[in-house]
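Can't paste images in this forum, so I'm doing it all in text. The chain is below; anyone willing to post the predicted structure tokens underneath?
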Amino acid sequence: MICEVCLRGIPERLSRGPLIGMTHPARIYYKGKPLPVIGHQAEMLLHLMRFGRSSIEALSNVATGEDTNDAAGSVRRQILFVRKKLPPSVSIASIRGWGYELVIA
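Text version of the structure:
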């Protein structure tokens, strides 16, 4: 599988700390239990697991596959929903003016 954004090969299974992600279909597990994130939210979380941090534009591309005028607002809403579903030891931190970073305590 090839990433449409960076044209690199995408592994079928990703892991970062206690998180394990499967790319097709997008599923995320925390310590073996599935997290309730699906669709665009799961794709964004997988992208953060893969790179650790990401710009708003890259997350918008991952989530929608296109650049939109309201990219920042759409990404912000999706990140808000993902944050609510994460366990306490995993968080997504804002990088002011740029994007987000996945933080695992």
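Residues 13-104 form a domain with the Arc Repressor Mutant, subunit A fold (CATH 1.10.10.10). The chain has a mean pLDDT of 88.
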